[in-house]
Write a structure and sequence with these properties.
The chain has helices at about 1-40, 40-65, 75-90, 100-125, 130-155, 160-175, 190-205, 210-240. With about 260 residues, it is mostly helical. The protein is globular.
Length: about 260
């Protein structure tokens, strides 16, 4: 039994590396081409690869400990590709280059389209798991945070848009102080819709078209919906908390 488990984990690691390493190469080449086209220089490539490498380092331990299958699976491969796109976007933070907004919009739109693919693939291949859901959630959270930072950096809206990207991380931090906020939440289609709308709106906001008034209105409306979604979930967690000590982890899809 022990030998079988070790063999399965080794096969899983090889499967993961067989996706992560080629994707890293493609990501690096894409970043180099973008750096040349947008005159971003070598620092852009370094930032992109650093973000991607950090994501891989965080991914592998959880994958080996929690993934119930012997291979990474097609759905998680798509999520790895989405993570690479988020790294390409994150590399633009702090950069000043003509055409950055257009390039960011194209990459963000592609990542957004793929967001609807990984879940469907997991169900179709019968490889849905808590790990895959968490991987998808964390990728969505980072995607939203990076988009909000780009929206501010590009001058599309004010610094208040950063609350959209910080909301989920603030919720997690609050859970460190209040155990009842770490409990599992029930499935909510409304929460998923709010998450999707949030990402769509931020992609539209960073795009090089539209008026300042339209961008502000869209971003503000999405932020209000996000705040209401978090408030609803927090209220449910507080009201449904049993008496006494509470322990657990809330598996929250970014509202």
């Amino acid at each position: 039994m022990q030998y079988t488990l070790v063999f399965e984990r080794r096969a899983l690691l090889m499967s993961a590396l067989g996706c992560i390493l080629p994707t890293a190469l493609i990501t690096g080449l894409t970043a180099a081409l973008a750096a040349g086209a947008l005159q971003l220089g070598a620092p852009y490539v370094a930032r992109v690869l650093a973000v991607y490498a950090a994501g891989a380092v965080l991914l592998l331990p959880g994958l080996l400990a929690c993934h119930p299958f012997g291979s990474l699976g097609p759905a998680n491969r798509v999520t790895v590709a989405r993570g690479a796109m988020v790294a390409l976007l994150a590399g633009l933070l702090g950069a000043r280059a003509a055409g950055a907004a257009a390039a960011a919009t194209v990459v963000a739109a592609a990542a957004l389209i793929l967001d609807g693919v990984d879940g469907a693939l997991a169900r179709h291949t019968r490889m849905a798991s808590r790990f895959g859901a968490r991987f998808d959630m964390e990728t969505d959270a980072l995607f939203t945070a990076v988009l909000s930072l780009l929206a501010w950096q590009l001058g599309r809206v004010g610094a208040w848009v950063l609350m959209s990207g910080a909301a989920r991380y603030a919720f997690v931090a609050a859970g460190r102080l209040a155990p009842r906020l770490r409990r599992a939440l029930p499935e909510s289609p409304a929460r998923k819709v709010v998450a999707a709308v949030q990402m769509v709106v931020l992609v539209v906001v960073i795009a090089p078209f539209g008026t300042p008034m339209l961008r502000t209105a869209l971003a503000a409306a999405a932020l209000v919906a996000l705040a209401c979604s978090f408030a609803r979930d927090i209220l449910w967690l507080v009201r449904s908390a049993p008496p006494g000590g509470l322990r657990g982890t809330a598996r929250l899809k970014v509202p």
